[in-house]
Amino acid sequence: MKKCKFFINNEEIEIVDSLKYLGVTLNRNGRFINALKENIQKATKGLHSLKASFRDKYIPIDCQLEICEKTIEPILLYGSEIWGFENLAILEKFQSKYVKQILGLRQNTPTYMVLGESGKVPLAVQVKSRMIMFWQKLITGKPNKLSSQLYRFMLSDMVHHNTEHSWLSTVKNILIETGNYGAWLHQMLSETDAKRIKQTIYDQALQTLYSNCRTSNKGRAYATLKQKLTIEPFVSLLDNSKSLALLKFRTSNHRLPVETGRYTDIAYEDRKCPFCHNSLGDEFHYL
To answer: Residue 164 domain-assigned?
Structure first.
């Protein structure tokens, strides 16, 4: 394929494989995986600094979570309006890892427990919401803006030539998943409707977490203990050591028979209390 050349004021523009614009790395292939990795690197540095402060100043657990939410997550999500179509697994993994460290939980603790005890939702919820809000601004903004012109070009290319554009396809799928396909067909969405879609995205994420909890053997007790996806009051009322102990008890980060029986493949109903012998050694029994 013949190499294209571009000129501005008769000066040829160099074609490069990647370019950083407004802090986001743009790649020639249209992928943003490098941008995600760079965000994680920046967030990791910031997290290391925070951990030292948390340790030295004895910051309460709920404050630690809130500080990370206000400082680390914005770094992770920077530019997500345009790269939200990428695989977000590495972001979710990073979020889960640092929350587990703050809560003192093992790395194999189920995600629904980690998010439930921290009162958080998957970062994908924020990414999808940001993409919808950005899309709403594109279709309702000034038509002469370069971003609006490029959007109309991509949309026309997708509709008339069946060309795949990952960002557009992701926005379309979000609208379909939230029951708003009509907004895509008519390319119309009010700010009020955009906010309603954000709430729907959040509600759907909660339903998924609750479903994962109810269908998991490990979540039997937790589903009873956890009624709402909010951080529990005891986290702020108790000191850190007591909060961590209770968090571990609630999330199966303990050595009760119901948990240790997993390691030796003992059937669930046979994981008896060593003192009573006829009762299941789960959280409710010891309470």
So the answer is: yes
